[in-house]
Design a protein that fits this description.
It is globular, with a radius of gyration of 13 Å. The longest helix has 23 residues. The protein starts with a helix and ends with a helix. The chain has one domain. It contains 4 helices and no strands. By secondary structure, the chain is mainly α.
């Protein structure tokens, strides 16, 4: 199962990252007015939902998700 593999490889199942992604989901809803399902295919791989057809919205969402992923890599570099 792709979701199981993604979860183990990219730490999607980590409780701290789950809270991070829930916060990102909330921010995306606030910024873009869309309720994006909390799925690694969207947040990690950037696979857009079929319902999202607007090119500009897809572009903005990709940028927001890229920033979110970059934030994780920056936090990972910091000692706990």
């Amino acid at each position: 199962d792709v979701h199981h593999i993604l979860g183990k490889i990219l730490f999607w199942d980590c409780p701290k990252l789950q809270n991070f992604w829930k916060n990102i989901q909330k921010e995306i809803k606030q910024i873009m007015g869309i309720n994006l399902p909390l799925e690694p295919a969207i947040y990690i791989l950037g696979i857009m939902p079929d319902s999202m057809t607007d090119k500009n919205s897809k572009y903005l969402l990709r940028i927001l998700l890229l920033i979110a992923k970059k934030t994780i890599t920056n936090l990972h570099k910091c000692p706990l």
